Task: structure prediction
Amino acid sequence: MQDFSYHKPTSLEEVTLIIEGLEDKIFLAGGQTILPVMKFGLAQPTDVVDLNAIDELTNINVTGTMVCIGAMSTHATVAASKKIRKILPSLANLAGLIGDVHVRNRGTIGGSLANNDPSADYPAAVMALNGIIITNKRNICADEFFVNMFETSLDEGEIITRVDFPVPDLSAYAKFPNPASRYAIAGVFVSKTFKEVRLAITGAGPVVFRSLEMEAALSKDFSATTIKNIRIPFDGLNNDIHASSEFRSHLISVMAKRAVMKAIRNGVTK
Result:
């Protein structure tokens, strides 16, 4: 790891002042990804801006229709939040499935979304719940945020400050995890409102994506039987030492049915 200058601002205003003129900066949230990357020399920033002292980024606000989570909220905090578990338990349950205890106590929702790992869990929730990513510059809807593997629509110097999740009528998450890392080999998050059904898939492709075919079928009949014969083409799915693209296609179908059955079993989340 090469030398770098370390900054620890205590407000977003201070962040703006600090990053002006910095040539090669990187933002530090939980550090679960960026620190190993730096140690291996895959990233060599001249400046590291630590966001952990900015209290406003850890706020969690819950109403009857919206769950708003500060970007620096850890997975463990989201999983344990009584307010979130009451109004949107599917999201709290997802957070509790991320990594191990160490990862959940260090990793943050904002860091996870900004990194956009193809096997991360939160992207599926944001996409399926039609979430809104709030930054220090603008609001970005879920369908426009995730671009490609480890790539988002965030601009240079743009920081995620909050994520807003509309509360659906029904929702659930099911995943087939890698037994070592707990990353999703295939994970499916489904949500249903009076307006629409959204179903997002993570872990199976290079970036989180929706199945419009499954959504259309579930909009007519929200049941696992409705989608039992729908298969996601394996062309373009991830194919690695953990699972073949054909197996991931099969897992998507299994996890989708499990997610729908879980959502029905859990009943209305409001």
Notes: The mean pLDDT is 95. The chain has two domains: 5-53, 56-266. Residues 25 and 47 are 5 Å apart (CA to CA). The first helix runs from residue 12 to 19.
